[in-house]
Amino acid sequence: MTYVHKVKGSWVQESMGDISPTLYVSAYRLRLDGSDAPHVLINSSNSVYECTRNSQGQWSASVLATASNNTTGFLDGFWSDGDNAIVLYSVYESYPSYGSDFMAVTKVAGVWQLPAVIERSDSTNPSIQVTQSPDRARIAMIWADASGFRALHLDGTGWHPTLLLNPTSTYNLTYRVGFDSSNKVHILFKNLSPEVGYTEFKE
Hints:
Largest sheet: 5 strands, antiparallel
Radius of gyration: 18 Å
């Protein structure tokens, strides 16, 4: 694994030391915390790794506790700082239930907590969009399954699910989620029938 970043206008390639997963890597994400320090998530075979870089440029990795060995490709995380974070991922449910559980693992004062289920989808491989507000106080995620086009957002009082609409062929929708400068959620999805462009949902 290598980390590439720009220093004074020039790109610098940096080794991530001993972090070199030898098993199948199904997903990875790079995020910056409030001080612009990088954090990398890697889903390698049946383990999820958090990779962090200290002020001297040295990388280290730790394994997060996950609820199952069926962690799927969706994986993302957000850091307030090096000691406080949340990692989101989905776990595939096999026969007879089928579907996916959306899981959250939080890091509090430098200690990763046990994972918790925050929502369920009837899709075994949900296409999920997720983002964080500019003030880092809220997280929004959206996806589509047989029950409709759905959203889930986290704020200071907890997770809040919303069924936005129930169109046909929700699995084929194209959608994006984001926040404006006032930290309000905006969601765009492309209409399939009639094809009239995009519809926007906003707070």
